[in-house]
Inverse folding.
């Protein structure tokens, strides 16, 4: 089924334990700040019903019923491309697919890892994952991935922690009908607006850490689950919020610290329990899928940033200045690179894990994520440089709405003829919002830090091929055995007359 917005909103009134700014939340749908992210998340249930987007977001299951495409397992490059198009389309609308990004990525990673474990260990995790997937499709549930552990002392492995053993989520009891888990997950996006939490390890575990090699799913209102929402970016709502914080007001506060205080999980919802050897596969698979979403999210961000810089230049009357055009050209290049690298990751998928399950190409997708993360601060600098100091000291919505002072703002903060002062103020507020602390940290660390991308890039590089290329170029033996470079044609294969050795020789008379 495909739920309506009303059905989705009704499902959130489920008695979950949610806290925000030190107060227990009675209803996430009516909370002053939480309701903003609920409204944004509800786009997930608008787009599938819209005639322009239904072909992207809705597919049919084996029984011929309509289901959300993002809940299906990607099998081909075409599936990955469609998944990418769903993400980009929704993010361009204003931040949709919040309920089907991390969760869908975790679900796909569960499928990959379950298939590998079933094949190599004879487990039945694959059937559990597919049964759970069918449940999600039937009820069209909103899902998020609870991945990042709080970690404690990061120099120590999970089982070596000194303060207590619960810095990483772990199983504390195995019962006949399920397990009991304890610990916490942090920075979990979309958790206030989700129905289900899909929990997974955030790192590779060793045998001593097998109790932490754990993957499962629980409802957000499960007994013992406590969600602590992050501090709001602003305290403004409605028209005021859209004016002062046009981007972040729609997504605050989306992250939570989630505490699992001895939460019971039935076996049918457990997808890894102690198989520490496969925690690496699960972490790698999730990272690859989620970085695909990250690049899609950044397409919308980078387009808005580059466009805002261009509008600021136009409104300020400097759009033809050479140094401004160079900055804008660079911003447009970075935006295009991220778009194309994400596309390339889908066109050349990885299939060595999970049999017929396709994963984004690890080199391309990590290169895309690293490209925008490593250049993001430069993007912000260019925006601020082009906009000028007004993007810091721009008046607020309340200033603009006050009839006693608006005439002065309108007169003195105007710029190029033909551009309204209000439009200029709105662009400046957008640039101030997009270069603020929340957006910068989220962009750098969301979907994994730059160090994580560098680790993936190093581990995914085909060093044998690269070294064979260098050996061939330097005429060092060893390249001949490489399947690519060893088969390439060479100028040595051309049948040429013998070289005249007299050229360059020392004349007899000079000796």
């Amino acid at each position: 089924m495909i739920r309506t917005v009303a059905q989705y909103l009704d499902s959130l009134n489920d008695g979950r334990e949610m806290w925000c700014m030190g107060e227990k939340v009675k209803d996430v749908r009516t909370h002053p700040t939480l309701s903003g992210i609920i409204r944004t998340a509800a786009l997930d249930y608008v787009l599938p019903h819209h005639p322009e987007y239904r072909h992207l977001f809705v597919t049919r299951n084996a029984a011929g019923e309509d289901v959300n495409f993002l809940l299906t397992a990607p099998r081909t490059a075409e599936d990955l491309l469609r998944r990418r198009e769903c993400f980009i389309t929704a993010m361009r609308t204003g931040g949709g697919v919040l309920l089907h990004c991390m969760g869908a990525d975790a679900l796909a990673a569960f499928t990959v890892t379950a298939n590998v474990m079933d094949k190599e260990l004879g487990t039945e995790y694959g059937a559990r994952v597919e049964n759970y997937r069918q449940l999600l499709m039937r009820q069209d549930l909103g899902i998020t991935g609870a991945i990042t552990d709080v970690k404690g002392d990061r120099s120590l492995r999970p089982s070596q922690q000194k303060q207590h053993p619960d810095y990483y989520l772990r199983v504390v009891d195995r019962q006949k009908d399920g397990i009991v888990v304890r610990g916490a997950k942090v920075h979990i996006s979309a958790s206030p607006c989700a129905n289900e939490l899909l929990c997974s390890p955030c790192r590779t575990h060793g045998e001593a850490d097998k109790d932490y090699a754990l993957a499962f799913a629980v409802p957000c209102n499960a007994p013992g689950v406590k969600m602590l929402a992050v501090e709001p970016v602003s305290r403004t709502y409605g028209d005021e919020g859209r004016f002062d914080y046009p981007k972040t007001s729609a997504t605050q506060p989306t992250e939570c610290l989630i505490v699992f205080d001895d939460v019971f999980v039935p076996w049918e919802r457990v997808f890894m329990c102690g198989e520490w050897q496969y925690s690496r596969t699960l972490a790698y698979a999730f990272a690859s899928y989620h970085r695909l979403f990250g690049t899609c999210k950044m397409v919308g961000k980078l387009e808005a940033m580059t466009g805002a810089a261009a509008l600021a230049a136009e409104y300020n009357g400097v759009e033809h200045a050479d140094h401004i055009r160079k900055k804008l050209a660079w911003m447009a290049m970075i935006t295009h690179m991220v778009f194309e690298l994400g596309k390339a990751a889908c066109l050349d998928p990885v299939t060595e894990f999970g049999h017929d399950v396709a994963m984004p190409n690890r080199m391309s997708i990590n290169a895309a994520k690293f490209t925008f993360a490593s250049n993001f601060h430069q993007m912000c600098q260019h925006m601020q440089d082009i906009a000028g100091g007004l993007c810091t000291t721009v008046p607020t919505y309340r200033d603009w709405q006050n009839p006693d002072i608006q005439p002065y703002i309108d007169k003195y903060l105007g710029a190029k003829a033909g551009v309204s002062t209000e439009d200029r103020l709105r662009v400046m507020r957008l640039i101030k919002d997009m270069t603020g602390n929340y957006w910068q940290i989220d962009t750098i660390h969301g979907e994994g830090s730059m160090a994580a991308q560098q680790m993936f890039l190093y581990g995914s590089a085909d060093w044998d091929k690269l070294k064979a290329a260098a050996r061939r170029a330097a005429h060092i033996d060893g390249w001949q055995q490489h399947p690519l470079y060893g088969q390439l044609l060479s100028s040595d294969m051309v049948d040429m007359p013998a070289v005249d050795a007299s050229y360059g020789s020392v004349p007899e008379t000079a000796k």
Summary: The mean pLDDT is 87. The chain is about 45% helix and 10% strand. The longest strand covers residues 178-188.
